[in-house]
Design goal:
Elements lengths: L6 H65 L2 H11 L3 H25 L8 H12 L2 H10 L5 H17 L5
């Protein structure tokens, strides 16, 4: 069968085999490239989410530093309170309550965006219930809840506050 082939037939056969091999390798390369692109997209999304999380942390840290800078300077706190007509002790409690809510928010965002593992959600929810059990935090939440996203408000009001109010220990 192979003996009757001339050089042109052998060349055509070799070209066909080489084309088949090249096609197989191109298909494998396409699959590999597709997987690589998917992996790169996941990495870019994670970097974006991480950057957003870092920006939130930086903002909360800056607010905390500013707050502690004001309360650690009694003359400044007194002048600030007098100029804005508020009680410094009440203001301090409100700011501490806002920091606690923001801390819960940061952990919530990290859970939602996948930075922190979802398997820790139950423990985080219990911690959030402990934070929102403080009367000052609940009072602050009632004033500030509308500035937070719908998802976060829903989480606090259905998973944290509702559970807290329905548990036997809160009666």
């Amino acid at each position: 069968m192979w003996q009757g082939l001339n050089i042109a037939d052998w060349t055509a056969l070799m070209m066909m085999v080489m084309t088949l091999i090249a096609t197989i390798f191109n298909v494998l390369l396409w699959f590999s490239t597709q997987k690589t692109v998917q992996l790169l997209l996941k990495q870019v999304k994670h970097q974006i989410v991480s950057g957003y999380s870092e920006a939130k942390y930086s903002t909360v840290d800056a607010h905390r530093d500013l707050f502690f800078g004001i309360i650690s300077n009694p003359p400044l706190l007194e002048r600030f309170a007098e100029a804005n007509d508020f009680d410094p002790k009440t203001w301090e409690i409100e700011k501490l309550s806002s920091f606690l809510v923001n801390q819960v928010l940061l952990v919530y965002l990290n859970q939602k965006t996948g930075i922190t593992s979802a398997r820790h959600m139950d423990g985080f929810t219990r911690d959030a219930r402990n934070v929102f059990a403080y009367p000052t935090v609940k009072a602050y939440w009632e004033k500030a809840r509308m500035v937070h996203s719908h998802d976060f408000r829903h989480f606090i009001e259905t998973e944290v506050l509702q559970q807290d109010e329905s548990s036997p220990s809160s009666s």
